[in-house]
Every structure is written in structure tokens, then in C-alpha cells.
């Protein structure tokens, strides 16, 4: 749940074509195919039906964290395709009637695609604007824009020229008395003429103070094309992590992002 302030953009609930093509075709896993003769099955498989955290247990076996309380055991994928990195990912899966062991549900993964996953960036003081940028974005109110499982995942929209990688980061707000206030930064490196498209990024929030089991309001600030905006998310520190200290890493994105 989050509360939008000064939000005037048009909200969309479907990803851009570029984002979907990457997930549905490039990173297909499993026995089902997007070339199925059944049109309904084709469209069902093309789109993600969940946003998850990809994790590994102590033996290195892959599992998925669906939300703060629900875990999924893939029956057709044993090892993470992303190595030993803990990442957020879009996935299309089906529940199956098989044993899930210590997990909540057993699933068959049709395809899975990682999204850019990063830690909170270090505060560089007076160099923040130069390094992290002040280029505008719009944060999109969508089912993937949420705080869960210790991450803030954001769908954002901006102008892409396609000439350079854009640099996106999350910083702790400077000068704020609220320890749960962060700001989204975007550096386009001058690549500000082109088409409007969407990106997806997840930030690991372990740099924030422990909420000690309570749910607090996480305030996000960003510079939009129409001025400064903010939104609030319900946030609770993740209670447990498997393995104990997974590494958040910047991984491949469909757009030129870092």
C-alpha cells in the first residue's frame, strides 16, 4: 500500500513492449513454449504473473520469495540461473500438485527474468548531483511498484535516446529527520532526446534502520517532469534471509541501465 502525493501522470497496468519481450522470449525456462497453438496459452505465457526475490538455501538450491510471507519451490529448476546473486525477478509460473517441503507452494517456472537489483548508493555529499544526476522520471503506480521482502521495486518512465546507459540509484534523503526517507536519482548523461519508455529497478533496503517488526511509512521522493513528488509505502524490515548474507548485484536490464 502506498499513498501518492502530487501525482498527475496517467497510470498504466501493462508493461511496455520492450520490457515484456525480454522477459517472455529471452529468458524462457521449462517445457512450455510461447509458440503454443492455443492463443490463450500464448498470451498467458507471454506476461509475468508475479514479482519475486530469487534466493538459494544453504545447499544452493533455488527458491522464490513471493511476498513477505510466501515462498515457492520450483520443481523444474534446481539452481538459480543468476548464480549466487540474490535478485528481484519477473516470473511466469504455474502451481503444481507436488510436495513443496519447507516452502509454501510448489511451482513450475515457465520463464523468469531478472531485473536490475542494487543496494542503496553511498552518500557523496556535494557530489551527489554530479554523480547520481537530477534528470526527471515519473514513478508509475503499478503492481510492481512496491516495498516487500526488504526491497523497494520501482517501475519508472523517462526519455531514452539509446545512446548511453542511464544511471539510476536510491539515496538516503539528506537533511531529513525521517530515517525512512529515500530519494530516487537518475543520471541520463545527456541522453534526453528520444522515445518515452519504462524501466524497472529494485533497491535493497538493508541500509535502513531495523523497524523491529513494526510496519512504518517509507517515503520516496523523486524529481518528475512536473516538479518534485513523493509517495509513501508500507515497509517492514525483512525478518529472515537465506542465505544469511546474500549479495545484491546490478544485473542485466532490457534497457540501457546501470
Automatic annotation (TrEMBL):
Residues 120-235 form the NigD-like C-terminal domain. Residues 51-115 form the NigD-like N-terminal OB domain. Pfam families: NigD_C (PF17415), NigD_N (PF12667). PROSITE patterns: PROKAR_LIPOPROTEIN (PS51257). It comes from the Bacteria. InterPro entries: NigD-like_C_dom_sf (IPR038143), NigD-like_N_sf (IPR038179), NigD-like_OB_dom (IPR024299), NigD_C (IPR035376). This is NigD-like protein.
Amino acid at each position: 500500500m502506498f499513498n501518492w502525493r502530487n501525482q498527475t501522470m496517467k497510470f498504466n497496468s501493462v508493461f511496455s513492449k520492450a520490457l515484456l519481450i525480454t522477459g517472455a522470449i529471452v529468458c524462457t525456462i521449462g517445457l512450455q513454449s510461447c509458440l503454443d497453438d492455443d492463443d490463450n496459452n500464448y498470451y498467458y505465457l507471454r506476461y509475468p504473473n508475479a514479482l519475486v526475490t530469487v534466493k538459494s538455501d544453504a545447499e544452493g538450491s533455488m527458491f522464490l520469495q513471493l511476498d513477505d510471507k510466501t515462498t515457492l519451490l520450483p520443481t523444474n529448476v534446481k539452481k538459480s540461473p543468476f548464480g549466487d546473486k540474490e535478485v528481484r525477478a519477473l516470473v511466469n509460473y504455474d502451481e503444481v500438485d507436488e510436495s513443496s517441503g519447507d516452502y509454501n507452494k510448489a511451482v513450475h517456472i515457465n520463464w523468469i527474468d531478472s531485473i536490475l537489483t542494487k543496494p542503496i548508493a553511498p552518500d557523496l555529499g556535494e557530489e551527489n548531483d554530479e554523480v547520481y544526476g537530477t534528470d526527471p522520471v515519473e514513478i508509475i503506480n503499478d503492481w510492481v511498484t512496491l516495498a516487500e521482502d526488504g526491497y523497494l521495486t520501482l517501475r519508472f518512465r523517462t526519455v531514452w535516446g539509446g545512446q548511453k546507459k542511464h544511471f539510476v540509484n536510491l539515496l538516503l534523503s539528506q537533511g531529513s529527520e525521517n530515517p525512512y526517507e529515500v530519494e530516487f536519482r537518475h543520471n541520463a548523461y545527456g541522453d534526453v532526446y528520444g522515445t518515452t519508455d519504462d524501466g524497472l529497478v529494485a533497491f535493497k533496503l538493508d541500509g535502513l534502520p531495523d523497524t523491529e517488526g513494526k510496519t512504518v511509512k517509507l517515503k520516496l521522493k523523486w524529481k518528475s517532469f512536473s516538479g518534485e513528488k513523493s509517495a509513501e509505502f508500507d515497509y517492514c524490515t525483512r525478518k529472515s534471509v537465506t542465505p544469511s548474507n546474500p549479495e545484491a548485484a546490478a544485473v542485466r536490464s532490457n534497457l540501457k541501465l546501470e
